Amino acid sequence: IITAKQEGVLALPHEFIYRENSEFFVTLANGQKRKIETGTQNDEIMEIKSGLQEGEKVQQVDFTTLPVTE
Asked: Would you call 65 helix, strand, or coil by DSSP?
């Protein structure tokens, strides 16, 4: 069942995005942390509404180094 379809949007796989409290972030290739605004998502990818531009390089998240939150 398809519930939404969007074309021409910037999106990243989940493994490049991490969450702290209620905010989402990516880590740029240079190691800089950047807050992003997300939109529609599914099991694999998340729409990036703002905070990142097409062509910017980001690092895959190493989830073993992130602090554990409840």
From this structure: helix
